Amino acid sequence: MVIVSFVKNKEDKRNAEYRLAFEQLNFVGADSKTPILKSFIEDKGTRIDEITFESMIPIETWKSYIPQLQTSLNISIISIEQGASKRIVIIKSMAGDAKIPKYLPWDDKYIEEQEGVVVVGQTFSGNIKIDLNKSPHILSAGETGSGKSVILRCILWQLLKQGAIAYMVDFKGGVEFGLEYEKVGQVITEVDAAEKLFKYLVDENAKRLKLLRESGSKNIGEYNKKFEGEELKRIIVVIDELAELMDKTGVDDETRAKLVRIEGYTSTLARLSRATGINLCIGVQRPDAKVITGQIKNNVPVRICGRFADSKASEIVLSNTKAKDLPEVKGRFLFKLGADTVQFQAFYFDDDKHFIPNKILKLRKDESEDKKGGLDLNKENLIDDNLMNNINEKFQIKEVKSMDSNIENKDKSKAEIFEEQNKTENLKSNINDDYE
Predict the structure, then answer these.
(1) Whole domain around residue 224: which residue ranges?
(2) How many domains does the chain have?
(3) Is 102 labelled as part of a ligand binding site?
(4) How far apart are CA 43 and CA 11, in angstroms?
(5) Is 148 annotated as a binding residue?
(6) Over the stretch 70-109, which tens digit does the pLDDT of each residue have?
(7) Rounded (5°) CA angle 45-49-53
(8) Which residues of the chain have pLDDT under 70?
(9) Residue 80, phi then psi, degrees to nearest 5
(10) Known binder of ligand: residue 196?
């Protein structure tokens, strides 16, 4: 009885505080009544409160009053959403002293230990993290100067530090990814090279899916635990401007055909590479339906969006108009994964200070060349498809059989096993260096 009384007193006190704040703002509905508190849910983990009110005040009026409400209620409002009916409004907020930083320089201390997990910035309650093992592709949109490309490079740096293979697609002559980036990955600046890259990635994805299936692995993480020393490398593909790949306006027929094929390959990867460790990081400056196709929108779960004056652009990227209401703070973005849209400050990744190729080269120094991925598009003597398929089949058989090596090799002598390993190594050494 005492506990019930205490809870009720706390609710009554909170309700009275809200009612007084609303009255002071003259924040009333068509019925001349202030909003009524329906529920208050506190998440001690995230420190985000969910406050539900009932009133006859339109959602648009609630949003227009955000500055006044934050001051009067002493809260930092993260979002205001419509509830189950037009009379119900749900506010997600934090304590009034919680702030989003206005400037956030990058530091390698933010790099996550878990492979495939990256951080892009901070919100009221802490870091914004993306687990590519669960949400494999990212779309970063924003107007010129918003910092969308800075986010892409920050993500790229983290994955390089984690050992990923990198491809960077930039049809603006490689301006976004200069010579320093070419030391640690391949920068693709031409349509022909891009077509080769995406075809290779689709083939590589199919190969990896087969390996996962035959080894009984659900994803690349499970596979790598089973085959220590023969792990599949994560592959990150950064596309600086999606429109350059998708917009076919004004191009000749031959180029158009290539772009159509590239679009098909990209859509295939977006759909099918969730488990294989091939991730797309896509930038877009002018979102429209021709650029962000249905396939891309449906299969790229993580959306990062800067401020857009045009609510239509916000709608295309986020499926809501919240980007239109973002404050004009450089580096301020919205993060959407699932239903929630959260405002955050992106890390400022300065190439001159933070991108140090020698750090990546040093990490790779003691590693043998990757045996399961990597394509040098600058070499002319690329392996033809038939040879690659033949190599893949033989190499896959070796990988799958290695799981059961304790059983299959039980009755073999050490000499026989050694001979089989030599045959495999000879096969690999005789193929074109591009496979390695």
Answers:
(1) 108-365
(2) 2
(3) no
(4) 16
(5) yes
(6) 999 999 888 899 999 999 999 998 887 777 889 999 999 9
(7) 160
(8) 1-8, 45, 366, 368-436
(9) -130, 120
(10) no
